[in-house]
Amino acid sequence: MADHIEIGRLLRSETTGFVFGCKLDQIDSPSFGALVRVRMDDHYQIFGLIYDIQVQDDGLVRQLITSDTLANEAWLDTRGNRTVPVEIGVLALGYMLDGQVSHLLPPRPPLSLDEIFLCTPAEIAAFTGAGRMGYLRHVLRDQDKPVEELLAAHLKQARDVQSAAGNPAWFEAALEEVIALLKDDYPTLMRVLGAVDELELARDRQSELNGRLG
Amino acid sequence: MTDQQRSNTPKTDQIGIITGGSLKNNLQARLTVPSHEVQEGAFVVAGGEKDRWLFYGLITDLRLEAHDPRYAQEDLGRRLSPRLAGLLRAQTLYTSAEITNTLMMEPGPDPLEDPEGYETWFQSVLTESVPPQPAKTVPLHHAPVRLARAEDIALIFGKEGEKAFFRLGDTLEQGHPVCVNLDRLVQRSAGIFGATGTGKSFLTRVILAGLIQHDKTAVLIFDMHNEYGPDDIASDTGLHVPGLKGKFPTKVRMVGLGRNATIRGARPDYTLEVAEADITPEDVLLLAQELNLRDTTATTLDALRASFHGTWFSEFKKMRTNAFVPGDDGKLEPAPDSVQAWAESVGVHGSAAEALHSKLRRLFNAPYIVEQPAANALQQMIDNLDNGQHVVLSFGDYETDLDYLFVSNLLTRRIREVWEKRTNDFRGGKGAPEPRPLVIAVEEAHKLLNREMASQTSFSTIAREMRKYYVTLLIIDQRPSQIYDEVMSQLGTRITGWLGDSDDIAAVLTGLASRDALRGMLARLQPKEEVLMLGWGVPMPIVIRSRRYDNVFWEELLQPKTSSRKTNTVFDGLDF
Ligand SMILES: Nc1ncnc2c1ncn2[C@@H]1O[C@H](COP(=O)(O)OP(=O)(O)OP(=O)(O)O)[C@@H](O)[C@H]1O
Ligand SMILES: [Mg+2]
Question: Has the ipTM of the complex gone over 0.90?
Fold first, then answer.
């Protein structure tokens, strides 16, 4: 199916998250804050959020960068045929077992070389709309990550999907949950809400622009 | 929204949930409605219908609180979009209310599911077979808090039109009727206080009318300013204010002081004169301040009584002062009918006796003090009070403190003696009937019950002995701080309007639990027609808007059957 976009395969994993790799020329599809899933078998898949994209260097890249001329072929070759993959970090958010979404951490992490897919809007709507947004706590847990940016990116994606699916109230409920989870941590909450506000502003500007054009 | 929040959203009249508190102090509740929907003094109920107990109390403080003070300090509206700021405020900023934990009661049957069971239970509460009790425990955490409904108020304060329950006003927020139990009100002395113009006299009219209509108690009113008997004109609105006489023409007897008394131009039912023989030296001593008597007075009075017994006043009055006659030796000596001669004969200081004589001249000259009254008005007053009538003694033109003090104290002393004797006869098992309870209403009570006077007047005796002899006081005063504390602390029911003076506030609250909370409420009452009721006579303190004394009042009082208030107030308050 065309919506089932495979974006890479698993490199390593642990309970709270995993890292998958993809080729440099595949990198157009996964983006920061996007919801992905790993299909383990017909009954079980794991959901996660992309929080980190790393492009590692190697000897060849270093060499090419220091050479005086960078031939076009070499550039293309390096991009397409590199042996070092792009590493993409994913935060585990929950899983789906026999069609039931759970916002608890997956009982088993994914295994090496499992395929990773970008979630379709329907999958996003199903996962984020299930239960009571319990998965947000996983996002907020690890304060080493750029939590506010991550949340803002995720909320934007999910808001658009939920609105399109006829559930515009979702966004406000999600914000209430974020506030409930973070209200003890004033600085983080204010940063998160600041980032969310950026989203709101961007949307307002967009609709204003559309209004002017249309 | 989380589930927790969902369950906290107010159902109908819920205003918050209990978050803390203790028996010794107040309860705290977190409001789930905006702060402005609740006011100090509001009567609230904590606990759910399925809980073991419902708790009744008053809101005494409202505080703005924040989950973290930084949320309150930061101007969220400037930093975030309105929507985000709104969501954030909703979860991090809130109002907490301080609630007194005063009474508790087991919830009765549900009035909707079991109306008959509820009514039976309600009646048993009114008859006090299942009375509300002082709170001995506290509500559960997160017990719902709601504003009291009409039926809650009726449970605690009684239902208008039943038994001795008489509506004295309404709650501030929702205007639910609040009653007093008239039988309980007169069981101990009561006080009505408030600064000038707060509505004391109007509220007293309401209460007196209620007592007269209730017909269980005789009422004697010392009407210093001719306010209660005759019709009057309100000084502020210029409106006609009906007097008790006009509304209860046969039940109320108007008595004027002095043979030719007129009250606002009209003749009273009869007049009162004081017989000289009824005056005791104590009656005079009481006027020490008014007459500027000296310390020697008591000795002189004692000597007078020893010489002349009951007729001392007349005899003393007849004596001449500065009267000398030539003696046998030709020298001037005191005339035999002079004060000086009498003083010498009994060995008291002549000049002291002379001074007393001249100071008593105001009494000697008082037209209402006569040797032989034309009729025994005192007996007539007592007969009236016995026969289910009520007496308003108008001072007419005798408006000085001297007249008021002298006459009201003397009459009260005499009447109390009668009631005391009757009580003793009744209790002595001589088959004598039970005395009819008597309430004596006095304005400007501090003149009779101040610290200097308290040991001497019959009023303070009455206040202190409670209702041992079936006589209690209804005292009306602007300056409760000037009333002797021992008297204040004996007052069963205190009803007070706004008071500005902190001493007065402290005086009204003496001897009450939760004084601090009540003090704030008292200081913030509306300057008119709002009163705080407290004390033994009411189940718990409450702020009410006084019942208006107007035509509607009289219509409701005199024709209760056609009154619109007759409908079932318990069920009126329910949202069906
Ligand atoms: N219950 C009431 N019904 C109608 N009017 C009222 C009531 N209470 C107060 N008022 C209004 O307030 C005015 C003042 O009330 P009132 O004369 O009873 O005050 P007060 O406390 O007796 O004052 P003072 O101490 O000077 O005698 C009245 O003239 C009347 O207009
Ligand atoms: Mg008055």
Answer: no
